[in-house]
Write a structure and sequence with these properties.
globular, 302 residues, 13 helices, 9 strands, 11% strand, binds zinc ion, two-stranded antiparallel sheet, five-stranded parallel sheet, Rossmann fold, alpha/beta
């Protein structure tokens, strides 16, 4: 029907159709809608307090680019400041381009930018650390990158770390924890850390789907087609990703339902029991569930 595909808020042509509530939006209203939803999540979950110095984990990829753009727009009103941190793992053919993208974005926005390298922190590039275990690339890198980010954040003196995890990432993690029978990880977000140990983590984009993030970047003129990490994805996550994509397409709202399920489980569980099970690594002093942390084990320390 002519006139059907119009913005629900004005008469401009609609560029997206969203659910819950059902609405069609033009470019300007979609940008407004995305920013309002992120700001609402930041306030609802009290992610930011006045005086906070927020370190944004900026890989240079689409999620973290959108995260920095959004926080740069939304945070000044909350009395918090921003600093971007990038981890250079030393992945040939991948990191050079994303690093350049990260540098030009922080320069354009006037945001301070701190870069740490695997070579500097762990004595070698990821490519070389992985020799002989290339198949485990994503797992090894994930462990080391989380530690490197913590290190970078410490260097900036930031009070919180913001990461670009989106709704798809979070829904995949929920389903993966269910499929692995991993209740502790379902109940307790290890990334949020413990008072006195880690810098608290916030995930302001967890209310946006990957598709919405790409659309937001395209509409603001920041979408860039960058190389994917050559080590990307564990086997289980790739399977869960394609399964969830199919379910979300046939049953819109599936990912949101999964998040509501996780939040319900978290509310009814007692995470303090799990927190008690954590101790400190006898080699590096970071928080771990065993005697020696994953980083020290991967690096063959001790
Ligand atoms: Zn409109
Ligand atoms: Zn350790």
């Amino acid at each position: 029907m002519p006139g059907e595909n119009r913005c629900s808020l004005c008469r401009e042509p609609a560029v997206v159709r969203l659910i819950e509530p059902e609405r069609r939006l033009c470019a300007a209203h979609f940008i407004e809608d995305v920013e309002a939803r992120v700001l609402a999540a930041v306030r609802r979950e009290q992610m930011v307090s006045p005086g906070d110095r927020i370190a944004v984990g900026l890989s240079g990829g689409k999620d973290s680019t959108a995260l920095l753009l959004l926080l740069h727009r939304l945070l000044p009103s909350s009395g918090a400041t921003l600093v971007a941190v990038t981890v250079d793992e030393g992945i040939a053919g991948y990191r050079e381009e994303t690093l350049k993208a990260a540098e030009s974005l922080t320069a354009e926005l006037g945001v301070e930018h701190v870069i740490v390298t695997f070579a500097d922190l762990f004595g070698d590039d990821l490519d070389r650390l992985l020799t002989g275990r290339e198949g485990q690339g994503c797992t090894v890198c994930g462990v080391l990158r989380r530690r490197a980010l913590v290190e970078a954040v410490k260097r900036t003196g930031a009070t919180k770390l913001a990461t670009g995890h989106n709704l798809d990432d979070e829904a995949q993690s929920v389903l993966m924890n269910v499929l692995r029978g991993d209740l502790p990880h379902l109940v307790h977000d290890t990334s949020t850390g413990q008072p006195g140990h880690f810098v608290p983590r916030i995930k302001p984009l967890s209310v946006l789907s990957e598709k919405e993030i790409v659309t937001y970047l395209l509409l603001r003129g920041y979408f860039r087609d960058l190389p994917e990490c050559p080590y990307a994805g564990t086997a289980l996550r790739s399977e869960v990703r394609s399964m969830l994509a199919g379910l979300e397409h046939r049953h819109p709202g599936t990912m949101l339902r999964l998040m509501q399920f996780r939040d319900g489980v978290r509310r009814s569980a007692r995470p303090t029991e799990l927190a008690k099970a954590l101790s400190t690594c006898r080699i590096c002093g970071e928080l771990t569930s065993g005697e020696v942390c994953q980083v020290c084990r991967l690096l063959g320390r001790g």
